[in-house]
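Sequence only, no structure available. Ideas?
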Amino acid sequence: MKPSLLSAQIKKLLDLIQTSFWFVPVLCIFTSFLAVYFCYQLDKSLWQTNNSILKTLYNISPDNASSLLSSIATSVITMTSIAFSMIVVTLTLASSQFGPRLLRTFMQDKKNQWALGSLVATFSYCLALIRLASTNQDSGFVPGIGLTLASILAVIAVFILVFLIHHVAVSIQAESVVAQCWQCLKKDIDRLFPAAQNKEQHSHHTLVWDKNLSPHPLISQHNGYIQLIDYQGLMAALEQHHAGAELDIKSGNYVIAGQCIGTLYWPDDKQEQPPKDLLNSHLVSGKNRTPIQDPEFAINQLVEIALRALSPSINDPFTAILCINRLGSALRKTAERSFPETLLFDSNNTIRIKRNVVDYQGLVKAACDQIRQNSMPHPSVVIAFIDMLTQVATNLKRVNYQHALVEQAQMIVDGACNDKLHPNDQQDIISKLQTIHAAVNSNH
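Reply:
I predicted one. Tokens follow.
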């Protein structure tokens, strides 16, 4: 496997680990076995000590030690079952209230993962220590240090359970869910959109397919969502074959096997046919979207929460307004960043890849279109929506970015005027449109 593609696969694996409930508990269980081993070695060297302080650790019979460890293990596994039940109930409520795609946000909560890991590790520790204590009953050996650590872990487990109850109760609140989605979105923006900087000026822009190259369709061999595209490896392969490529897809798109996903420009003087898997071997696909290369993923999570809040069954405009405000922060933050380049140059300043990338206008549409289409029955949401667009547009320097926001505000007003709203509500909405026009014009 090529190094760049291996790096892409590792990124996918790390993303799966972050959103799993098994990795941290397995890590904690492994650590508990190591703790048992070290405590056992320490106990073997100290259990017949004459030190009065250390001797109190071993002032218990092997039978009582085994009974105590058994009681701790039983209590901890009961607390673990309660913790798992709470988390399952939370996931069920989150799925029905905020949408099934929000389960990813709850599953990657490190506090839940470490709480569960600590509980199952304490149970595993006690089981392993019981085995050691039972094996050495004839010799009168008592794992005093291990038993003391087990008692401390049992007390800590009680506090962990109380903490988990509090954390679950807080995390299921709408404000916490929206804030957590915003934190994920902010991390994605920082990772995918670097700070604005002066772009490298290329002395010439030579399209490799301006030369003697013939176009060949690139056919998808995948069924699923594009999670990663290995542009570095694809560039190296194209440069090796003196070819070029124009991609019609980007991370987050769903592709069907047999679908044309781009065009390969292949040298006419080559006797060999272009490899069919030239692009497909540099794609990582899956059954769902991931935020690894997809900046719209977290935006869609906030949009989904807002849409469910605006549905007749839930009818919670306050949550929708929370999402709109967070989306406004995202649009303001991304406006200050550098977006991915459409054209990718090789080492000779020759354009070898023309790709489909997300731009600011695309992010605005992803953040606004569906909410705008479903917010008409809620004048308060519409007014908050235009207020958000006004706040963002007022602080932008690029005219094309401002135009995308003003266009959304205009469509909101057009929809509100065509909808059956009270004339006073319509007048409030129209005045908000005048405000955003005035704010944008004052900056020119």
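The mean pLDDT is 84.
Hope that gets you unstuck.
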